[in-house]
Amino acid sequence: MFIARVAKGILFVVNLLIFYSTALIALVIVELALAVVAFLVISGRSLGPDITRHLNDMYDDKEINQSYMDILNTVQRYFECCGIVGSRDMKAFLRKGTLMDSCCEPKFAGHCMFSNAYKDGCQPQIKEFLEKNFKIIGGVAVAVGVAEMIGAALAICVKRKIIYEQAYI
Predict the structure, then answer these.
(1) Greater model confidence, 2 or 27
(2) CA–CA separation, 29 and 123 (whole Å)
(3) Which of 47, 122, 141, 147 could form a disulfide with 81 if both were Cys (CB 3.0 to 4.6 A apart)?
(4) Where, by residue number, does the polypeptide cross the bilayer (predicted)?
């Protein structure tokens, strides 16, 4: 009775290790495919039009979708920018007659106008940030993939060790 329970427990652990290693390998394959596609797409064209399109959509719906407003405020504060190509493109203009507070330094909160707004647009700054940090992002993705492969290899080794030792019981 006791030996049967132990055998079932060991079989359960072995099956979990097989599932874990298979899931990690599948995840690495998907990550690798996405990384290759991303490198090919980004290296073959400029990011500018895509960033502009996404920013346009977000600015157009900012007063309807609160999450867009939060994202735009965060981006504008971080990059100290306003609008897509500058504060004068009217994308950061609110219905109440002022610019978004994040278009200006915090001391102008509540009455941010064109005269005290950040002059630079967000699109060029986001593009520069992504292009500058793309290699770092890719390096982190590769490091995570390597760690996952090591985890899968260790899981397979543990599974083989358990099966090997069970043969001698």
Answers:
(1) 27
(2) 32
(3) 122
(4) 12-42, 136-158
- Which CATH topology does 46-120 take? Cd81 Antigen, Extracellular Domain; Chain: A (1.10.1450)
State how far Cα 39 lies from the chain centre: 15
The domain spans of the chain are 1-45+135-169, 46-120
As a whole number of angstroms, the distance between CA 122 and CA 80 comes to 8
CA distance 54 to 57: 5
Residue 34 CB neighbour total at 10 angstroms: 11
Quick: pLDDT tens for 118-134: 989 999 999 888 878 77
Q: Are 69 and 62 in contact (CB under 8 A)?
A: yes
pTM to 2 decimal places? 0.60
When pLDDT is averaged across residues 34-55 and rounded to a whole number, the result is: 75
Half-sphere exposure of 124 (CA within 13 A, CB side): 8
Residues 6+ apart with CB under 8 A from 80: 118, 120
Residue type at position 88: R
